[in-house]
Amino acid sequence: MANQARGNVTINTDECKGCGLCVESCPPKVLHLRPELNQYGIHPAQYTGESCTGCGICFYCCPEPGAITVYRLDTKNVAREVANAAAV
Amino acid sequence: MRQLCKGNVAIVKAAITAGCRSYYGYPITPASEIAEYAALLIPQVGGTFLQAESEVAAINMVYGASSAGQRVMTGSSGPGLSLMQEGISYLAGAELPAVVVDVVRGGPGLGNIAPEQSDYFAVVKGGGHGNYRNIVLAPASVQDMYELTILAFELADKYRNPAVILTDGFVGQMMEPLEIEEREVKQPEKPWAVKGTAETRKNLITSIQLSADQLELHVRHLEAKYKECEKNEARYETYMADDAEILLVGYGIVSRVLRSTVDIARQHGMKLGLFRPISLWPYPSKALADTAKKCSKVMVVELSTGQMLEDVKLALNGTKPVDFYSRVGGNVPSAEEVHAEIFARMEALV
Amino acid sequence: MSEYQVAQQKSPVFYDRYFRKDELQHQTHYCPGCGHGVAHKLIGEALAELGLQDRAIIVSPVGCSVFAYYYFDTGNVQAAHGRAPAVATALRRSNPESIVVSYQGDGDLAAIGTAEIIHAANRGENITVIFINNSIYGMTGGQMAPTTLIGQTSTTSPWGRRANNEGFPIHMAELLSALEAPVYIERVSLGDNKNILKARKAVRKALELQKQGAGFSMVEILSPCPTILKMDPVVARKFVNETLTKQFPLGVFRDRKPEITVVNPPQRSVAEVLGIKKETATAEEKAARKAFTHDVTMKIAGFGGQGVLLMGQLIAEMGMREHMEVSWLPSYGPEMRSGSAHCHVTLSHERIGSPLITKPQVLVAMNEISLRKFAPQMAQGGLILYNRDKVPEDFTLEGARVVCVPASEIADQIGSAKVANVVMLGALLEETECLPVETAWGVIKSFVKNEKLLAFNKEALEAGRKYVDEKVLVGACCQPDGCGY
Question: Is B183 exposed, middle or buried (0-12, 13-18, 19+ CB in 10 A)?
Answer without folding.
Answer: exposed
